[in-house]
Design brief:
Blueprint (H helix, E strand, L loop, with lengths): L3 E8 L5 H14 L5 E9 L2 E5 L5 E3 L6 E4 L2 E4 L2 E4 L10 H8 L9 H8 L1 H9 L8 E5 L8 H7 L4 E5 L9 E3 L5 H9 L4 E6 L3 E10 L4 E3 L3 E5 L6 H5 L3 E4 L6 H18 L5 E8 L4 E7 L9 H8 L4 H10 L3
Length: about 325
């Protein structure tokens, strides 16, 4: 059988563009090159290009997501999306791939759009009994509809102010009093036109990764996140200001509850490929969902590769599982 051709689609138009490039390099190192021809495709605006093996690049034909190499047209069989932010994490790229009939690694348009909007996702999952923090949505130009006193009374202090429709690495502030709300809104609105104000939950932060195929469910060991900063911000994520413990130091009964919730969320959303769900376990043992990440980081030190290793699995086999489930 001829080798299938895989595109690792990275980049994007958000502040996490460069983080996405690092994930793409991680994925490239993990894929089975004996089984697949693998190319990294960097996307920014309408400039899409494939990185060729000789160090040059080739422009992607947006009509069919192909490119020319050595005078021959290369047609992809599968797209592995690792864009953190728009257009790969909010359904836009998925809609394009649906139009050109190319299978891809994430969930579909609706699920991606919903998981990208933290406020919408919280309200949706709450209706299925998933515990989430109390929150308010503030839209640009409508800030006057909710006063600082209203926020303090409804959400309480401290609280988090974060972009509702972007990644979680930029624009996030921990607000300790209402005087800090206005600058926090300005910071968040540099990333998104919609800002979520979310109540502060004290407890143990964990993250749980998994995937499903037609034949099996694989839930990785849970990671405990211990940050030395006020919260799990960009420096904690990418500059080593955090301690990541896999498996998490939680009772097995609690770990089993987390695994069941993660699998339940996967099914509620009808997810595809690898997802990672972040939680807070409060002191009274309640498990609150913080965020569902449908394009989790894939550098060698990211959570998912760590969890895969802790499970005694290989990223190469996991990626092969996911691709072969669809093509």
């Amino acid at each position: 059988m001829s080798k299938k051709t895989i595109a690792i689609v990275c980049g994007g138009d958000s502040s996490e563009h460069d983080v996405s490039l690092r994930s793409a390099q991680g994925l490239y190192s993990f894929f089975d090159k004996e089984r697949y021809n693998v190319y990294i495709v960097d996307v920014r605006g309408t400039d899409w290009h494939a990185e060729l093996h000789d160090g040059t690049t080739a422009q992607i034909d947006l009509n069919d997501f192909s490119f020319i190499e050595d005078g021959k047209r290369v047609i992809f069989d599968y797209a592995y999306i690792t864009i953190h932010g728009t257009p790969g994490e909010n359904g836009i790229m998925q809609g394009y791939f649906d139009l050109v009939r190319l299978p891809y690694s994430t969930s579909g348009v609706l699920v991606e759009a919903m998981t990208f909007n933290k406020f919408v996702l919280n309200q949706y999952l709450r209706s299925y009994g998933v515990l989430v923090a109390d929150s308010l949505l503030i839209r640009r130009g409508c800030e006057e509809l909710v006063s600082e006193d209203d926020i303090e009374e409804r959400i309480g202090m401290p609280c988090f102010v974060k972009p509702s429709t972007d990644g979680s690495s930029f624009g996030v502030s921990k607000v300790k009093n209402k005087d800090q709300l206005a600058p926090a809104f300005r910071k968040a609105m540099m990333e998104s036109d919609e800002v979520m104000v979310e109540s502060f939950l004290e407890g143990t932060e964990i993250t749980s990764g998994m995937y499903k195929t037609n034949e099996k469910t694989v839930i990785f060991p849970i990671t405990e996140v211990v940050t030395f900063n006020e919260f799990f911000d960009y420096d904690a994520k990418y500059n080593g200001q955090v301690k990541e413990i896999t498996p998490a130091r939680i009772p097995e009964e609690t770990a089993e509850r987390v695994r069941k919730i993660t699998s339940h969320i996967y099914d509620i959303l009808h997810c595809n490929g690898i997802i990672r769900v972040d939680y807070i376990i409060t002191k009274d043992g309640k498990i609150y969902m913080l965020e569902v990440n449908t394009t989790p980081g894939m550098t060698p030190t990211s959570f998912i590769p760590q969890q895969v290793k802790a499970a005694g699995l290989s990223m190469t086999d996991v990626l092969t599982d996911i691709v072969e489930n669809q093509i």
